[in-house]
Prior knowledge:
The complex is a heterodimer of chains A (296) and B (675).
Chain A: H1 2-8, H2 13-18, H3 24-34, H4 40-52, H5 67-101, H6 106-120, H7 123-137, H8 153-188, H9 190-197, H10 202-231, H11 234-239, H12 245-254, H13 258-286, H14 288-291
Helix pairs in contact in A: 1-13, 5-6, 5-8, 5-10, 5-12, 5-13, 6-8, 7-8, 8-10, 9-10, 10-13, 12-13
Chain B: E1 7-20, E2 23-36, E3 40-44, H1 51-58, E4 66-75, E5 78-79, H2 85-94, E6 96-100, H3 103-106, H4 113-123, H5 128-141, H6 147-151, H7 160-172, E7 178-182, H8 190-206, E8 210-214, H9 218-224, E9 227-232, E10 235-241, H10 242-247, H11 252-260, H12 301-305, E11 311-312, E12 317-318, E13 349-360, E14 363-375, E15 380-384, H13 391-399, E16 409-412, E17 415-416, H14 426-431, E18 432-435, H15 439-442, H16 449-461, H17 465-478, H18 483-486, H19 495-507, E19 513-517, H20 525-542, E20 545-549, H21 553-559, E21 562-567, E22 570-576, H22 577-582, H23 587-595, H24 635-639, E23 644-648, E24 651-654, H25 659-672
Parallel strand pairs in B: 3-8, 3-9, 6-7, 7-8, 15-20, 15-21, 18-19, 19-20
Antiparallel strand pairs in B: 1-2, 1-4, 4-5, 9-10, 10-12, 11-12, 13-14, 13-16, 16-17, 21-22, 22-24, 23-24
Helix pairs in contact in B: 4-5, 5-7, 7-8, 16-17, 16-19, 19-20
Domain ABC transporter (chain B): 9-258, 349-593
Subcellular location (chain B): Cell inner membrane
GO cellular component, one term (chain B): plasma membrane
Amino acid sequence: MVFLGGQVLPGNVGRAILGPFADQRAVDTLNHTLGVDRPLLTQYASWIWNFLQGDMGTSYIFRSPVAPFVIDALGNSMKLAAVAFVLVVPIGILGGVIAALNLNRPLDRIISLGGLSVTVLPEFVTGIILILIFGVWLRWLPISAAWPRDAGFFTQLYYLILPSLPLFLVLFGYIARMARSGMIEALDSDYTRTAVLKGLPWRTVIWRHVLRNALLPTITVIATQTGYLIGGLVVIETLFRYQGIGSLIFTAARGKDFPILEAGILTIGIVYAVATLAADFLYSVLNPRIRLGTDQ
Amino acid sequence: MTEKAGNALELSDLSVAYRVAGRNRAVLRNLNLTIGQGEAYGLVGESGCGKSTVALSVVRYLPRNGSITGGAISLDGQDVMKLDGEALRRARAESVSMVYQDPGKALNPSLRIGRQLTEIFELGGIAGQAATDRAIAMLNRVRISDPASVMQRYPHQLSGGMQQRVAIAMALANDPTMLILDEPTTGLDATVEAEVLDLIALLRQELSASILFISHNLAVVSKMCDRVGVLYAGMLVEEGSTQDVFNDPRHPYTVALLRCLPRGGQRKDQGRLDTIPGFLPGIGADIKGCAFADRCALATDRCRSELPPLYDLGGRLSRCHYHEQAQALPRATPSDVAAVAKAKSEPVLHVEGLNKTYASHGHALRAVKDVSVSLRPGETLGLVGESGSGKTTFARLLLGLVPPDEGGSIRLEGKVLAPRLDNRTDDQIKAMQIVFQNPDSALNRSHSIRHLISRALKRLAGLRGAALQARLDELIRSVRLTDRHLAVKPRQLSGGLKQRVAIARAFAGEPRIVVCDEPTSALDVSVQAAILNLLADLQSKEDVSYIFISHDLGVVRYLSDQIAVLYLGRIMELGPSEAVFSGPHHPYTEALLSAVPKLDQTETSRIRLDGEIPSATHPPPGCVFQTRCPRKIGAICETQEPPLAEAEPGHSIRCHIPYAELARLQKPAMQAEPA
Lengths: 296, 675
């Protein structure tokens, strides 16, 4: 899709690179060197084939292979995503579980309403507010995510906290909500009643009987959001001037650097697919009904 | 725990309310009930009368909005309501256990059976191998074969009957003094139900537990319990020994409930079932006099103003001012039916050699094998058999929802029907309609009843405007709904009313055949009686034929002219209803019939079926029933599949035992059976 969009949309590649005043013959020669004058299907086939072998093509602007750009950027994005992920998953689940255990009490209302309100705010709004509060006003955290060269793990982490917070806020609501509804369903279930009526202590009931069944649907949500964490970073990375895959794609799109754009988006697609696959796998490990099939 | 001689359970003036829309609504009203040590007490009544609330109050597990508003519960001498968290936990662990409906949900789906059992022993300080041994012993006790392998399985890998055995094992693990069984066999097959009931009866002799047995099924309670209490609108209306209450009821409600059941082989052409008019008072309703007065034909002004006390009638109680006249309760529905002279006409449906094979993990699963039946206009074909016998698949084949294998044929009024619904003509589609078990899921929740029925009229009958309106009026009258019901959404209607809507919808296109797939299984007996009457009336009026699927043999018998008994997709017996029920019959039919608990406690020697229905992917060689057949005669059963041979005109049996021999073998049982 992206490949089609990139290659078919009006805009001659050679013309775009060489500028409006270049000689038509030079443009044609460049187009030929880049291979963009070949039939579309041939181009697509050779692009995919090369991509699978690790050759993501050559950037139009930088005149160098795309792969290092994409891989670096992906690495950076993953760092950011990992920080956000590590923050949001446990806290989101905990929030949902606490809300469900205090159903319809004030604590539940605070978590549910608060989670929902921050989720509906777009990340550029929360991002700017957070920058203003923590970066400008309190001066606790750096406002740019670009850490100094040779920064160690903790320094990098320190620089990543602020950018990951808007992501945290967006995802917290989703995850807490899923965890909450999963918990409510599991708490109301007959097997929880069985466990309570066995005379098991409340903690055992929750840990052994409720949590595992309650959190299964949440895992699916988390996995689909992992794709977002890697791919939906354009705004955040631009805002914090962070060299991730989101800002790479953004820059490439602005410069009509199609090889980088296409490689970046395909990479995100792959990450998304892998994350979903991993989630399905995890789900089936945790759910014996899927793992073992139905005998009856 | 202190052992006190006395009652196992005592409820005194127990009142429970549910908080709905900011108001406490009474569900149980000053309920007094005692269960002695080792006694089995049955609690019966329609849904919504508060049976389960009693159970949940005893274990203090009421829903969030429920609260005990008065009275006391004494369990083995302890006041349950005064227990603090830890003491309550100990009481649940040691003295009271509960088993409820739907064992598939009662077991934790993601823990192995073993784990779910051993954790009970761990509570008592027995861990590791000792706990495992105890768990295996417990599974042995509930007659589970190969307990060690069952321990390793997850609940979904067990059949419904096995799951319920496991649930019973869990409940009995700590040798409780009080066992509460809340509809423990509802939703199980008749043969499985019989097995589970046998097990409970057996365990009662081995263990000391007292039992509170809650069920809407009067026959089951009559089989299991010493004493029985009838609950109505949260009040006990009658109590006494099972024998007395069921054979000589003294409250009009009990009388009416018993009359709703098709008994003693009653059939549709012999009379309509009695019904109970009106509805149970809603929860929290303000009841001045007798709660049943509005539905009682005997009620006088006194009944409406003065709450009857529980009159003591010498060892039994009745909450009726006129208890001595209770049995004179006039019928709510006249019994008489217009005799219809049936002309011998051509079959409306003729099925020849129908097969359906599914591919299941590389094996052929023969869900329906070589089924041939025919059905005359205005007649009912009852399909009988355990789950997995192919009843529903057969219905789906007829309706064209799944295509049958090549070769067989379905003829509707002489014309061959296309295997798939898509290739059938509109006329053929509207000629065959279905009514499902659960009207809740069959009706679109977001549409009004008017919309639901009008749509069917537009689609099936092609009606518009005034013609549609006229037919709509006629249709809702014939299913006994009123204009008032048209504006509402399905969720505002009771289960019985919803089923009427579903029936109206099926009849919209003036069908020739209606498939009724367990249409009354989810309904209370009084509502069931009304729906059965309705189906019978519609049949005699419109000359429509039914394919009637039900696990309730009494219900099938009431409505059916022909019966087909299915086992592993094959017809084992086919014949006129009377011949199939009165016998001589196929050994499988015989076993099915003997599994049905009877109200009058004339327990004939029950024929037990061992094991479970074999997998349809690997049916046994020879006669498919030979692995469980109590009358197996020898090697021939294991090697040759018997043909479906005509035993007497119109009555065929698939068995190697000759008809005369079957008659001789089954003679004593047939004589014991009430006419």
